[in-house]
Amino acid sequence: MPTNQLPPDLQADVETLWAYHDMGHQPRRCDVGIGLGSHDLGVAIHTADLYQQGLVDRIVFTGANAPTTIERFPRGEAVHYREHAVSLGVPTEAIMIETEATNTSQNITHSRQVLTDAGIHPASIMLISRPYQQRRAYATCRKVWPEVEVICSSRPLPLDEYIASIGDIDRVINMLVGDTQRITEYARRGFAIQQDVPDEVNAAYQRLVDAGYTSRLI
């Protein structure tokens, strides 16, 4: 059964990975906000908040489906995100969607194409994602869209509140571990720029792998 309780013996390592993936960018006004599709509806909630704060005038929600989202968002991540943002008061005309992307690189490149097709060429974008996707999203964007200024933003929840919002600690830990592996692996494969991985992050990652959190490893 899913649980929201973080095991005490894993807490320090999970917190280490959680902190590593937070880029620490301060939200500020950008030309476009790009909400990256996932299983986490908090991305749509945070994107709507940013719009209502006047930090973005236009939104692109991007995402088809993955095995982790098909059941929750059967019509596609971007479609459900748009519907939820509209229910929170974002005008439909402020939202564009991209419904084909199945990975972060495609999220970014396909969103760029949607904007280009609409005659929109942003100088700055805000990538809005799950908290532990920030670093990978940033590294990917710098690789595939290097000329745009990019900052990352996520719903500002502490780890315990985020776990409660998802409702499944094992899923959160597995995703954290998987994203940590992808920082180095995707750079090695040429999908993203290289990021420094401190020794304490590598050690925490390895201990969580050894503890069996391997379902999201490549």
List keywords for this structure.
218 residues; alpha/beta; 8 helices; DUF218 domain-containing protein; DUF218
Q: Structural class of the helices, strands and pairings?
A: alpha/beta
CATH fold type of the largest domain: Rossmann fold
What is the terminal separation in angstroms?
25 Å
Uncertain residue segments = none
SSE order, as H and E?
HEHEHEHEHEHHH
Q: Write down the overall geometry.
A: globular
Strand content: 5-15%
Pfam families: DUF218
Protein name: DUF218 domain-containing protein
Domain DUF218: 44-147
InterPro entries: Cell_Envelope_Assoc, DUF218, Rossmann-like_a/b/a_fold
Q: What is shown here, in short?
A:
It comes from Prauserella muralis. The protein is of the alpha/beta class.
Task: Tell me about this structure.
α3 (77-87) links the parallel β2 (58-62) and β3. The mean pLDDT is 95. Strands 3-2-1-4-5 form a 5-stranded parallel beta sheet, sandwiched between helices. It has 218 residues and is an alpha/beta fold. α2 crosses α3, α4 (104-117) crosses α5 (134-144) and α7 (169-188) crosses α8 (199-210). It is 46% helix and 11% strand. The radius of gyration is 17 Å and the shape is globular. The longest helix is centred in the last third of the chain and has 20 residues, at 169-188. It starts with 7 loop residues before the first helix and ends in an 8-residue tail after the last helix. 41% of the residues are buried. The chain has helices spanning 8-21, 42-52, 77-87, 104-117, 134-144, 159-166, 169-188, 199-210, and strands at 32-36, 58-62, 95-98, 124-128, 149-153. It folds into 2 domains: 8-21 and 158-210, no CATH class; 32-153, 3-Layer(aba) Sandwich (Rossmann fold), CATH 3.40.50. Pfam families: DUF218 (PF02698). InterPro entries: Cell_Envelope_Assoc, DUF218, Rossmann-like_a/b/a_fold.
